[in-house]
Amino acid sequence: MSDKKIRIGVIGVGYVAKNNFLPVLPRFDDVEFVGLMANHLESAQHAQRLCGAQHAVSSLQELVDLNLDCAFVLTPKACHAEQISFLLEHGLDVYSEKPMATTLRDAAHIADLAEKTGHKLMIGFNRRYAPVCQKAKAAYGEGHPEVIIAQKNRPATEYRATLENAIHMVDLMRYYGGEVKNVNALTKYSDPYYETFTTAQLEFDNGASGMLIAARCSGQWEETIELHGNNLSAFIKMPDSVTVTDAQEQHTTVMTPLAMGWARSEDKLGFTNAIRHFLDCVRDNKKPITDAADAYKTHELLDRILRSAGLPAMD
Question: What span is annotated as the signal peptide, if there is one (predicted)?
């Protein structure tokens, strides 16, 4: 495949697709943007004019019939399990936005299906691929921080807010700290499907400690991560800066210089790097970092947090 372009298709033309994927995919010289699918053909045709896809279709079968190498699933989370399964069973490698399913049973089935079919399934935990997050990871090398504090806050709640948004922070905590053996979580709500906040204390297998804070009662949108250990600290303010400090020095990296000051959210939040990683894995037949097996561990940890807090779990 290295000598020919990667034939791709995209499912979904909503906010995430239009802001973080459709502007990015045409940038790559080794990509042939073959098909774009939406349930309403008019929506697919409108987005087609924006991104230059060759075909606009309204069904998965029509998309598969375009002889693709891979597809991007960018639809609402309730659609992911069915669409991912269909694509894997029809011989395609798949990139899907998180979560890969809304239940652990469906997530386990999809992970097993990816292994059984031998096709790649990458889940879009794009924060891992954000430049500031990768810079903090590099600061610790092969080691782990001893304390991890991750916050993802918003000024208003939404349906199943912890599942929908805090999953990014849960994945980052695994990325930095490894696997978790104990979870103790708290929440507040008047409706358990629209929680006001969730906090969780995590004890990692390696003895590190983590604190997750997911508040839907804050003054503004905020994502921050603090890492402390080995007399080294990293402070991430997503998506714009990371400060690494020790007893002698402090270095701050800001994303303003990216693209000569024109860096966009898809670059700073890691979408561009994540997409490129997936395409490289398709081309070179390599396993994605956030493949289905690894992503399932994040889903399972999130389920434990939800259960510990007394929120609806991933049943």
Answer: none
Q: Quickly list DSSP for 226-237.
A: EEEETTEEEEEE
Count of residues making up the chain = 315
Angle 247-250-251 from CA coordinates, rounded to 5°: 150
Q: Do residues 82 and 20 make contact, with C-beta atoms less than 8 angstroms apart?
A: no
Q: Determine contact, residues 109/121, Cβ cutoff 8 Å.
A: no
Residues 31-61 pLDDT 10s: 999 999 999 999 999 999 989 999 999 999 9
Contact between residue 218 and residue 226 where contact means Cβ atoms under 8 Å apart: no
HSE-up of residue 198 (Cα within 13 Å, Cβ side): 35
**CATH match for 6-125+283-291 among 3.40.630.30, 1.20.120.530, 3.40.50.720, 3.20.20.220:** 3.40.50.720
